[in-house]
Amino acid sequence: MQAANRLQRALRTERGLSFGAWQMLPGANHARFMARTGYDWICVDTEHGNIADWQMHEAVAAIAATGVSPIVRIAANEGWMVKRALDSGAHGIVVPLLYTADDARRLVESAKFPPVGRRGFGSPFAMGSIGGVSSLEYLQGANDALLTIVQIETKEALENVEEIAKVPGIDVLFIGPWDLGNNIGRPVMGAFHEDLEAAIERIRKAAVDNGKRAGIYCVGGAAAKKYADQGFHMISVVADAVALPTFLADALETAKGSKTDAAVPTY
């Protein structure tokens, strides 16, 4: 099972670097198009994205069929949301709005089968996206093969980040810079404030010091490169809801002759 999880394989290498993209718009074909562009993982966003439960199931299956890891961001740290995402066949979950180490422990309990946690067993779909294993193999391997990723984006989570990073079963501390900036009084108005950059580095260090990986959400390749060079591991490069209007507007400017330095896209 672990061999089928492309994101986990990348995170477990010595450098541990992986790049992903964020899906906010629904559609299995849309998910498939994104997955075929070379990323290690695609995050299906059911928190802020326009993606319903059944659409999540279809996106997860479409992404996994290309050999890319489907990751699902659920809307809140709720056990039933964890169950629905993992039962769809997700290779991991991203969970927003944590505050304390107890929140992280509660999440692990929801995400793991007994004796580690309390996840219920019975999905007929999950096995198909994790190497086509049997239901028994899935039950026996899921605790180790699937990733539990927590977002550090609240003031309280930042204050407790070292304790959160110590929680067994948490694999990645993932930063949402815009919410984190808002919550520490340093909203993003352009370049990140130095206090926000310091908070980002504190989270990265807490993860690494406790044997975990660090992730961050970016809105373009330049920012993704910066954080890769800074030592982050799970890096979201771009979201479809950002890339699509940006590309369309740029192409129109080029067509009208108002953009003089346009380059021919390579994708």
Automatic annotation (TrEMBL):
Domain called HpcH/HpaI aldolase/citrate lyase: residue spans: 28-240
Entry keyword set: Lyase, Metal-binding
Gene3D superfamilies (UniProt xref): Phosphoenolpyruvate-binding domains
Record Pfam families: HpcH_HpaI
Entry keyword DNA-binding: no
Superkingdom, taxonomy of origin: Eukaryota
InterPro entries (UniProt xref): Aldolase/citrate-lyase_domain, HpcH-HpaI_aldolase, Pyrv/PenolPyrv_kinase-like_dom, Pyrv_kinase-like_dom_sf
Listed GO MF terms: aldehyde-lyase activity; metal ion binding
GO cellular component, one term: cytoplasm
Family that this chain belongs to: Belongs to the HpcH/HpaI aldolase family.
Name the UniProt record assigns to this protein: HpcH/HpaI aldolase/citrate lyase domain-containing protein
Species of the source: Aspergillus thermomutatus
Lineage summary: Eukaryota, Fungi, Dikarya, Ascomycota, Pezizomycotina
